[in-house]
Amino acid sequence: MRKFSVLLVSLVCLSASAQITLSDQAEISVITCGPGQNELYSAFGHSAFRVADPVNGFDYAFNYGVFDFNQPNFYLNFARGHNYYKLAVQDYKRFEYFYIYYNRYVHEQVLNLTAWQKQRLFDYLQWNARPENQSYLYDYFYDNCATKLPEIVTNVFGDSVVFNGSHITTSYTIRQLTDLYLKWQPWGDLGIDICLGMPMDKKATPYEYMFLPDYVETGFDNATINGKPLVKQKNMVYESLPEDFATRLFTPLTIFIVLAVFSVGLSAWDFKRKKTSAWFDATLFGVTGAIGLLLLLLWTATDHKAAANNLNILWALPTHLVVAIALFKPRKWLKRYFTIVVILNLLLLITWAWLPQQLHVALIPVVIAITVRGWVQATGQGEAMLR
After folding, report:
1. Which phi and psi (to 5°) does residue 237 adopt?
2. Do the Cβ atoms of 319 and 289 come closer than 8 Å?
3. Domain count of the chain?
4. CB-count exposure of residue 160 (10 Å: 0-12, 13-18, 19+)
5. Whether residue 224 is found in the same domain as residue 280
6. 290 vs 318: CA distance, rounded Å
7. 193 within domain boundaries
8. pLDDT tens string 13-44
């Protein structure tokens, strides 16, 4: 859904003084562009409005998925969760070409509006495209390029528009809906599942499904305006061709299984020689501690609402960072610490399926590796560590 401005077509700016009156041949449509697997940000698809008026000689795409790298403090604001996106007005045919070029389907839903309703919606879009109005605070799931479309139609036409959610027959959480689009992005899926916490495990309402462009399309298909269908015509502009995606060997699950097997084998060797491999444990607990510190900062020091209440911090304890350093100088409290770590991780494995947050299955071998190495450290000879 998120679109990088460097990849987009040229902007066509509407000035505040150039308020345009539509002709009787004008049409306003909802455009849905299919997912792409080249980049994580393209995996969910895209939505936009199209306003075409052959009499006035224009064909615009109103695209709410643009952000500007040149914003002041862009990277700092991005890290803190202050992600400002904006509405850009683009030449529609160039907008459409971009998605067809990358083999992403393009569907058009022509809205069933009167001339007065078209003008009212277009006036709103023109107002929203002004420099002082075009930016908005982006939210992954509740305020993005897809949610803007039903939100705007509802704002403009009020109760006359009804989005009937009866076509939604599933009861997915936000996380489960996200997972549907990340089959071929296993590392991106893992990153999202690690960094985002319990807010993602909320059961989505039928309206909330429309944070995804595909569900915006079906939402408009089932919506009404003044009791009549909101969509009067649907055009399949382009259907994507089948693509073969190679099965990846180096997925998170396979890599982490190797880690767990190595941890078990190393532990058996450590017990046999009555020494502990501090170099490995310092690496394992140092990395997981760094992840834990990141999760804690995302939770407490940023405005990333979806990063709150993250149970991944149970296996990625930020205190592991301190322990990773302390391992190279035996201390009495380390055995007590690792005993607690073993108990905590065993409880986590036992209760995995019943946790209020869906943890990524590929993390199970990681938790096993932490548990095994914690057990080695809790029961091993602290004074005989190998460096």
Report:
1. -60, -45
2. yes
3. 2
4. middle
5. no
6. 6
7. no
8. 454 446 799 999 999 999 999 998 877 778 99
